Amino acid sequence: MIDAIRRRIVPALGLIVAAVPGLAGSDEAASRLIDLLRFEETVAIMRLEGERYGAELGQEMIPDADQGAWRAEVSRIYDVHNMLSLVSADFRKELADADLGPMIAYFETPDGQEIIGHELEARHIFLDPDEEQAAIARFREAEGRDPALAARITRVIDDSDLVDFNVMGALNASLMFYRGLRDGGAYEATEDEIFADVWSQEDETRKSSEEWLEAFLLYAYEPLRPAQLEEYAAFYRTPAGRELNRAIFASFDRMYEEISYLIGRAIAEQMKSVPL
Predict the structure, then answer these.
(1) What pTM was estimated for this model as a whole?
(2) CA angle, 110 as apex, 243 and 17 as ends, to 5°?
(3) pLDDT tens digits for range 51-62
């Protein structure tokens, strides 16, 4: 389950092209930004990720259960409408007092939309585990073949604290999964024991997150001109970029936490229903 949770949205970045006045936290501005960042398409891919990893989880944790019924339950939990509603509502709250103008200004440009398209394409390709592993190997090759590109990718990751955001989100989602198992009666542990178990996974989670981010960003950003990527990454270092980065992670993390808890409860129910 942790592997499914680790596949997080890579936050959209951008270059501040021009200020758009009067858009601080307005509902109309937030809706426009959500559309430009293509949240609906993002959660649709996340649903596919969740269904894939949910099926693997079922085979691992409840092999004697009706796998068809389990997949149907996973699909019910990963409901696109509910996922989009949760993320959008939290995203609006996170940016209620922010100036959305610089964010909207960039993502209305052809470069902004091109980059979002590349990110979504990469996310969809990575639904195939073989493609994901091949991309991880390609980043290692790129470090020797095109060290400048690899360095730009690494800088994007470092500048925006992507690894730390991913690790924290993954561990929090894992915590909620264990709580779901416990509350469903399939796991006996104190809160301290759950915390200890989750934090014991930090090193492994960090390594996996680093590998995935390097591979994902290389796949998504390799088609870009160097200047495009430099401008895109520069937004990370601005107050507006950091605010957008934080808001995206906060809103998607809460969605993942809720889903993880529900998956844990559902696994617990299946465990109790399977004859011994």
Answers:
(1) 0.87
(2) 45
(3) 999 999 999 999
* Cβ partners under 8 Å of residue 17, min gap 6: 102, 105, 106, 109
Please, are residues 180 and 262 in contact by the beta-carbon 8 Å criterion? Answer: yes
Residues 25/98, Cβ–Cβ less than 8 Å: yes
Residue burial 53-78, b: 16+ Cβ < 10 Å; e: rest: bbeebbeebbeebeeeebeebbeebb
Q: Please, which pLDDT band fits residue 276 given cuts at 50, 70 and 90?
A: low
Nearest-angstrom CA–CA distance, 146 and 51: 36
Strand partners, 24: 99
- Residue-level pLDDT at 113: 93
Q: How far apart are CA 70 and CA 58, in angstroms?
A: 7
Beta carbons of 188 and 94 less than 8 angstroms apart: no
Per the CB < 8 A criterion, the answer to whether 198 and 125 are in contact is no
Using DSSP, state whether 146 is helix, strand or coil: coil
Crossing angle (nearest 10°) for helices 80-94 and 239-273 = 140
Q: What is the pLDDT of residues 126-153, one digit of tens each?
A: 999 999 999 999 999 998 999 999 999 9
Query: Under 8 Å CB-to-CB from 199, ≥6 apart: which residues?
Result: 171
The answer to whether 92 touches 212, Cβ cutoff 8 Å, is no
CB-based contacts of 32: which residues, under 8 Å, 6+ apart? 100, 104
In this structure, are residues 182 and 205 in contact, taking their beta carbons and an 8 Å threshold?
no
Asked if 71 and 54 touch (Cβ cutoff 8 Å), the reply is: yes
Instruction: List, in sequence order, every residue forming a beta bridge with 99; answer none if it has no partner.
Output: 24
